[in-house]
């Protein structure tokens, strides 16, 4: 099982003098590498492929004992039609967009000035605030969830968009990330802007932010994906089907179907997974950078 | 700055004014974030701490201060102990495999030129997909009589396996789905770590007699990948420790409590049975574990940023 080529080695083109046996070994190891990678890829893709195929199969074929990969009769229209008629899937996706955008806008509006202040301005309490931000990085939503839920219940605001978004308005991670980014911004430019009579507010939004686009874009992807897929908090505060985000809507639908109508279930799953997957395929690099910027989810 | 006698009196008040502007602007800019921090994190934490010492239940008229009773109850609570144990078993399965496989794929991919982005997209796909929707699909894939996985097993002459209703199999099955969901994420982190290793090190090692791939991996890749590996391990631990979605959709803690995990237990106590006091105590236990992971993570993150 020795895989001599399976490592990050600068692969030099074999010279003409390369003996045949070495060449054969290289080809063998190359085949082995691709065999492992393809085997893994098949496992990764299996649920996606099966989801899409089942969503266009007819019920008798889904329940057939001798299962086939490709459907003989296409029932895509029935399955997708049933899913759309049974639950407001478009509404779920729309809710997802509203919630994610709402969260993102407030997060950026709050985090950017704070991060700039922490990076470039001297003010009392700066270090204490930064310590709080670092501590905040360690607290997942499940911890303040209970008191927040009670508070929202008390003021009668459960089952609102506000309730879904509220705990995420502050992203300590955004503050941490933007501060890191702003710190690298040259002081001379800020000083020059000040001498030109620009206010600190203008400096933040007109000079520093435009230069921080890569960080903001990466964070936007991270935030959007995290909240589109979040289940725990929406599950707690939302019981009204019309306000369900995609994961919650999927859960409502699965409960309603009690797991029997797989054609419609996979049709729903396909429609709710598609937006992010398509966005990912179009903006691959941005997605990968954005989501892996951190492990803090 | 200017040291000339003429400029000094002008510069001094300017500096003074600048200090005031910075103070004023700094506090103003930080204020909204601080208020939100107060409302979303700090006050709820204090309320949580207070609740954990009471027997408060939503809607109850009589609430008493019960000291450490909730924590004592947790120690003796079979459900809580089982869910904590299950959570650790889950982490113990996911952690080595999600990290190991992530590293393996990254190492294999790093030397690919043309096919790299092709594989990268495939392995990263589960990270972007909605886990709840995919869990429903997995449930179907693993179905004892209708699922294709059992279909293949039966075609090969094996008995059908009840992946999700056999108590001894349910945690490994959920862990496998967790690994499927995480491995692409870890792969990308490792790829970033690998590309930070200078190439000439490998050439130097080759000259020094490090000929085989394993040798090169052990002498260069593995040690230099240390900070990345550390970060990936902590990140994976925290993510695995917070397992909830697949349990909530696929098993609801069953069969017979064999897939009850910590967050699911907290969810049931707090938001289904409304035992707020007890749920608060369990949440604090959850927080302690997350903090233990996070302390390590803060160091890992710090090193990653300054590396």
Terminal Cα span of chain A = 37 Å
- Quick check: average pLDDT of chain A? 85
Oligomer: heterodimer
H/E element string of chain A? Answer: HHHHHHHHHHHHHHH
Kindly identify the CATH topology of the largest domain in chain A. Answer: MetI-like fold
Shape of chain A: flat
The H/E string of chain B reads: HHHHHHHHHHHHH
Task: Please report which band the strand proportion of chain A falls in: under 5%, 5-15%, 15-25%, 25-35%, 35-45% or over 45%.
Answer: under 5%
- CATH domain class name of chain B: Mainly Alpha
CATH architecture of the largest domain in chain A: Orthogonal Bundle
Largest sheet of chain A: none
Shape of chain B: flat
Number of strands of chain B: 0
Arithmetic mean pLDDT of chain B: 85
Structural class of chain B: mainly alpha
* CATH homology superfamily name of the largest domain in chain A: MetI-like
Going by helix content, strand content and strand pairing, the class of chain A is mainly alpha
In DSSP terms (H or I, runs of 4 or more residues), the helix count of chain A works out at 15
Into how many domains do the coordinates of chain A divide? 2
If you had to describe this structure to a student in words, what would you say it looks like?
The complex is a heterodimer of chains A (297) and B (307). With 297 residues, chain A is mainly alpha-helical. Chain A has 2 domains: 63 residues, no CATH class; 206 residues, MetI-like (MetI-like fold), CATH 1.10.3720.10. In chain A, helix 4 crosses helix 8. The two termini of chain A are 37 Å apart. In chain B, 45% of the residues are buried. Chain B starts with 7 loop residues before the first helix and ends with a helix. Chain B has one domain: MetI-like fold (Orthogonal Bundle), CATH 1.10.3720. Chain B is mainly α. The chains are: A mainly alpha (297), B mainly alpha (307).
